Automatic annotation (TrEMBL):
<dbReference type="Pfam" id="PF03966">
    <property type="entry name" value="Trm112p"/>
</dbReference>
<dbReference type="InterPro" id="IPR005651">
    <property type="entry name" value="Trm112-like"/>
</dbReference>
<comment type="similarity">
    <text>Belongs to the UPF0434 family.</text>
</comment>
<protein>
    <recommendedName>
        <fullName>UPF0434 protein GCM10009760_64540</fullName>
    </recommendedName>
</protein>
Amino acid sequence: MSLPSFLLDILVCPQCHAALAESGQGDETELRCTGESCGLVYPVRDGIPVLLVDEARRPS
C-alpha cells in the first residue's frame, strides 16, 4: 500500500527531522529517513506510519 504523496511531503523523521522516503512494497512498506547521519527505518502498519523512534530499526 502506497502512502499519498501529500503525506510524504509533510512527514519528517522524529529523530533528526530529515525527509522520509517510502521503500518496500505491499504489506512491507517502510519509511526510510534520508538524513545521512540518522537513516532510521520506520514501519507502516495497516497504512499508518509508526513514527516512534523506539519502533524504528537501524538499516542493515
